[in-house]
Design the sequence.
């Protein structure tokens, strides 16, 4: 779908042993050509919490919008959009209403 629109999608590599995002390549993944950084705060599959603040800081350096999927984090940890450095976050609707 991205290619159909003339867009490219880049991924931050995951360390296969720790299942943690490898942030060493952020300069290659997030640059002045980047339009949006979309990242999940937490994984319900492996239980990790991503270092969204570091990723957001890099995105801000090049003026990129950051969207964070907080669906799997909200039921377990406090989430502060501003501390994450995100312009957008998507908590689960049903949990947010409770």
Sequence:
């Amino acid at each position: 779908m991205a290619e159909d629109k003339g867009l490219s999608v880049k991924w931050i590599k995951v360390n296969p042993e720790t299942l943690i995002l490898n942030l060493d390549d952020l300069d290659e993944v997030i640059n002045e050509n980047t339009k949006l950084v979309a990242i999940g705060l937490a994984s319900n599959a492996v239980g990790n919490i991503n270092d969204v603040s570091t990723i957001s800081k890099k995105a801000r350096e090049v003026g990129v919008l950051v969207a964070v999927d907080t669906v799997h984090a909200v039921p377990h940890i406090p989430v502060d959009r501003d501390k994450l450095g995100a312009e957008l976050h998507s908590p689960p609707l049903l949990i947010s209403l409770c």
The two ends are 36 Å apart (CA to CA). The first strand starts at residue 36 and ends at 40.
